[in-house]
Write a structure and sequence with these properties.
673 residues, alpha/beta, seven-stranded mixed β-sheet, six-stranded mixed β-sheet, 23% helix, binds adenosine monophosphate, binds magnesium ion
Length: 673
Amino acid sequence: MTPAQQQSITGLILAGGRSSRMAHAGQARDKALIQFKGRRLVDHVFDKLAPQVGGVMINANQNHEQFKSFNVRVLSDAIGDFAGPLAGLHAGLFASKRPFLITVPCDSPFFPDDLVSRMFDALESTGSAVAIAMSGDQPHPVFALVRRSVLDHLSDFLKQGGRKIDAWYDSLTTVQVDFNDDALFGNINTPQELAAFENGLPLPPKVAKPRFRREAESVAPGEKVQQHTDAALAPTRDFLQHILAAPAPPAASLEAITSCLDGYDPNALPVAMVNQVIRQFVQPLAGFEQVALRDALGRVSAENIISPINVPAHDNSAMDGWAVRGSDLGTSDEAVLNEIGSSLAGREFSGKVSRGECVRITTGAVMPHGCDTVIPLEMVKAEGVRIVIPPRQEAGANRRLAGEDLARGQVALAAGAVIKPSELGLIASLGMPEVRVRRRLRVAFFSTGNELKSVGQTLAEGEVYDSNRYTLYGMLQRLGVDVVDMGVIRDDPAALEEAFRLAAANADAVITSGGVSVGEADHTKQVMRKLGDVVFWRIAMRPGRPMAFGRITDGPRQAALFGLPGNPVAVMVTFYHFVRGALLHMMGATNTDLPLLRVKSQEAMRKKSGRTEYQRGFLETRGGSLTVRITGAQGSGILRSMSQANCFIVLGHDQGSVEAGDAVDVMLFEGLV
Ligand code: AMP
Ligand code: MG
């Protein structure tokens, strides 16, 4: 870390807690101000921190007068009520003008002298949003270096009611910096710990926590989930306005990523490594919006949706029949009960059911008080109100329990889920009319090549119609992104540069086809190289060997770049196997992998080991079992092979030729939802 870099960092002392565990004889004592080895705790922390940073601030929610001695800014939380370290961080980021901010708690006076420089180096070399100090497996989440650019993201998290620091880190790119020594992060929470440290006594070892918990796991079923009212958030609202325009956190360079990969060879890159590089390079975008429930179809949920109610709300009947008391049922004799009323769906029985009584009930109706079992209609002999039930009925049967679908306080839908029809229904079952979703991804695409004509034009000798823009349009629409079709761009450096700059300025990602093969005479590759951080790969696959990947920039704006090959089948194969997952990752989706089925091949296929092949296949049932066959000629320009197929046959990197009857992996084109 250079002196200039040190100047770019604000040190924030977190002294905003209540110090409740430090209370002595019923009196609260501000931890920061407690005497330790002849000085206040905060004095020790200040002296350690100040020489490592460009300037210090203190976050405190009480006793401001007492911090005046430092002559630095003392900040209260903006969101009130001792909301924890994130609220302090938020206040610090808002007030600080420097591009980086490191937090240290006021009760940890032993942290290392190279804390800031090591955290800074890790943050910069990985391009992460946050660096977190560790000692072995033990994270110290309140020792964190963050970029100021995470302010919007944090504001948004707090606005949504998030308070847990671990959950917030989970939503960012983080790097852990191991200082290898628990003692450096010892902190003083209780009078006993204070005495132990004063006297140099060993502290009981801390139980190592696993990596960060998700916020939702800390909510016990039935526990009230804290809702934050508008009034509580009023002070933050002014600077929450520009969240939608928030840029993605900066990514690491391709060089930084690829130099860490064993056996990385851009001229013979295995498919798995392609995805590894892409996944590390592209980042989920910041930016959220609140949409009406129906409009959330196909979008990505931006937060954990916590059930505010039990679903179902009451114990209810799973059958039409009679609600009874399990203890009234006979084991060897039939039970004869007296029907005293009925409970219908939407109109419950309000009385109490005593011994020997039962209630007529319909499916979904609330279980009457005292009843725990439903005997289905067809089991029962009813003679007026005299209800005869055969022996050996199971007590508790045919009853749905309150909260068995979703218990109050439970995560109904995790952040990062793509909202499908079942999720729409699930959210509706919680009574929520709106959903918070990630903002839509904007993807620009164009074709390159002087031989290309657009549909509706007349072809001259040697020209072909541009079909790639149509397959790309279809694939992108299905993914639910906003598309920007930029047409065919001539093989002319000025035209290409303008197109790329426009795409970088207006889209989150740009996809091109053509012009990336080895030996291409055109200018596409040169312009890509000029405008960004781009690699040109020869991938060990068929079809789709050449591909460009990286990011292109235009001033402060940037877009991920996918330079796909020109051949129409290669475009689709590379899109589905590389671009789709990357775009979903940028959209904030988790769980984007598609399943492979293993089925019998009807025919032999020649295959070289050392590359992945994507044959176009047709999956069908033959002789009672699933089998797959190839859809005719497999040339990378023959789009008919895709059109006639219903699956890819994926022949893995190490696999050799296939005999008829061998099992192969297939990936289905169509899903049910
Ligand atoms: P290239 O990667 O530019 O060498 O293109 C490889 C092959 O794909 C050539 O035969 C091109 O004519 C063809 N091709 C390139 N772009 C398109 C397109 N947009 N639509 C149809 N064919 C294309
Ligand atoms: Mg070309």
